[in-house]
Design goal:
The chain has 172 residues and is mainly alpha-helical. It has 8 helices and 2 strands; from the N terminus they run αααααααββα. It folds into 2 domains: 53 residues, no CATH class; 91 residues, Orthogonal Bundle (Arc Repressor Mutant, subunit A), CATH 1.10.10. A two-stranded antiparallel ribbon has the order 1-2. A hairpin with a 2-residue loop joins strand 1 and strand 2. The termini are far apart.
Length: 172
């Protein structure tokens, strides 16, 4: 990524942050104005009155894609939902994100130390002192398998940790 370039997840975070203090009508107005400015067409919803031009534009737009089963689309949201308590758990979350949720251009079946640094920063997760040791430790813990020197793949134990066992709630 070039200097000043942000990821899709970072862009979404900025948009949500900017709109969070507005009421729903002001949010709708801001989104419509931004989409108009950027040349992104919006479909009219049945609840909104639409003139002939809007109806014609809506008629030529492709139908909306079905809603994804998961609302999570960025690493920060995934980290916040899963609440990792160690760098090893966070490494599993990053690997899962890269395999399952990342935008197509970022997807990867494997993970390296450089990926950890990138996505730990994007997620707002504290960087460990020995970043290069995190994947080694995660493999020793049984969450990864080695694919090549310095390259790992999340195995079923790591996948199940992220999907089924995080966050860990203390019994009260």
């Amino acid at each position: 990524m070039g200097e000043g370039t942000i990821t899709l997840g970072q862009a979404i975070d900025k948009i949500i942050e900017a709109l969070s203090s507005l009421d729903s009508e002001a949010r709708r107005t801001a989104v419509e104005a931004a989409c108009s400015h950027m040349g992104v067409p919006l479909r009219s919803s049945p609840a909104q009155p639409a003139g002939p031009a809007a109806a014609a534009a809506a008629a030529i737009q492709p139908p909306a894609a079905p809603a994804a089963p998961s609302v999570l689309q960025d690493i920060r949201s995934l980290k916040e939902e899963k609440q990792p308590t160690s760098a090893t758990q966070m490494a599993c979350i990053v690997a899962y994100y890269l395999q399952e949720l990342a935008p197509t251009a970022e997807r990867s079946e494997t993970i390296k130390t450089a990926d950890l640094e990138t996505y730990f920063k994007q997620a707002g997760y504290k960087l460990p002192r020995k970043m290069d040791q995190v994947l080694v430790d995660a493999k020793r813990s049984g969450y990864f398998e080695s694919v090549a020197r310095g390259e790992y793949r999340l195995n079923t134990v790591g996948y199940n940790l992220v999907v089924h066992n995080l966050p860990k709630h203390k019994a009260g």
